[in-house]
Design brief:
Strand order of the largest sheet: 1-2-3-6
Structural class: alpha+beta
Oligomer: single chain
Helix content: 25-40%
Order of helices and strands: EHEEHEEE
Shape: globular
Distance between the termini: 17 Å
Number of helices: 2
Number of domains: 1
Length: about 110
């Protein structure tokens, strides 16, 4: 079950705070439980009129890498890039459009 609904998404700043708190206060391997289907949306985020979702199988290491990017770029740019199936829905980060392994954030 997701922690928020598509109809009530977090802001980007709330999302960033939630990730930092999750990393600091839990020892979970992934941000959510996902059973047999890892691509389950878990957190919804709205930024600049666009809706995104972070999948439940997002890994602790991926969250850590995202937070490192955030620490180095206070206004971290989110860019939409093709996923591995060439669908334009994956989010890359920063000026160089970096893909973070294990961090599954997509535009809805």
């Amino acid at each position: 079950m997701s922690i928020n609904k598509k109809t009530n998404p977090m802001t980007k700043s709330q999302f960033n705070l939630w990730l930092r708190k999750w990393e600091d206060e839990t020892s979970e391997k992934t941000v959510g439980e996902f059973g047999n289907y890892g691509q389950t949306p878990h957190i919804y985020v709205k930024d600049i009129g666009r809706l995104f979702h972070l999948n439940a199988d997002t890994k602790r290491a991926g969250v850590g890498e995202y937070l490192k990017f955030l620490d180095s770029e206070s206004h971290l740019i989110w860019e939409i890039v093709p996923n591995r199936n060439q669908v334009l829905n994956k989010v890359a980060f920063g000026k160089n459009k970096e893909i973070i392994k294990g961090f599954y954030l997509y535009i809805c």
